[in-house]
Write a sequence for this structure.
């Protein structure tokens, strides 16, 4: 299983030979490690409609034929923009993929599509891979107490925003780690632009001194590989 950080909240997960892209914001992303033409995908998970998450979903889906998994409002928008291979989901629902199960879980945020169309509720994703690892992508969210319930699933890797202003900042992301109790936390959604600049090393020190969770900081393009 491989988790590659592509910058901001864009991720590529490879499991059982399948590639899952999450929030492929690349062409307009000053922190992106590659362009939309460089990625491959079997599935694209879109957390919400904001441009820094919806990103290059349409272009990548058209080129690769990947299925777009998103909340019903966003799946409908994707259909209207020339991509028919979508799976509309909603909060709490799961879908069975050949490499595991993906559940759409709540996020506390807002969601508007690039043309101003309402994007439904924002979401996070819980991936339970057949290879035996559980991944939680919080995506854009505030801290919420039900993270403790998600933590009961036994999370191996939690991808958490620490940028503040639009999402949790370092303090609340530390509280999120205490609720989720992941084996490893990976910070994201910071320092893409100056208003969300954060020091991930300082956050790592705090998390590792106050919890049993290890923090792994990935620079854009970097890949974490586990058995
Ligand atoms: Ni957002
Ligand atoms: Mn965002």
């Amino acid at each position: 299983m491989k988790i590659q950080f592509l910058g901001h909240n864009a991720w590529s997960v490879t499991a059982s030979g399948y590639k899952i892209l999450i929030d492929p914001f690349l062409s307009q992303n000053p922190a992106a490690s590659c362009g939309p033409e460089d990625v491959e995908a079997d599935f694209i998970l879109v957390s919400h409609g904001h441009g820094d998450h919806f990103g290059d979903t349409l272009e990548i889906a058209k080129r690769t034929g990947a299925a777009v998994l998103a909340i019903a409002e966003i799946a409908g928008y994707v259909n209207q923009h020339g991509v028919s291979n979508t799976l509309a989901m909603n909060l709490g629902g799961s879908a069975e993929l050949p490499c595991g199960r993906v559940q759409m879980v709540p996020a506390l945020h807002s969601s508007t599509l690039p043309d101003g169309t309402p994007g439904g509720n924002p979401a996070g994703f819980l991936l339970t891979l057949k290879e035996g690892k559980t991944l939680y992508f919080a995506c854009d969210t505030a801290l919420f107490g039900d993270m403790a319930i998600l933590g009961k699933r036994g999370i191996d890797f939690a991808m958490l925003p620490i940028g503040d202003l639009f999402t949790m900042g370092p303090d609340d992301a530390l509280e999120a780690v205490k609720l989720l109790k992941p084996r490893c936390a990976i910070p994201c959604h910071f320092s893409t632009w100056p208003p969300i600049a954060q020091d991930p090393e300082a956050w790592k020190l705090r998390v590792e001194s106050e919890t049993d969770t290890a923090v792994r900081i990935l620079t854009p393009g970097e890949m974490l590989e586990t058995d």
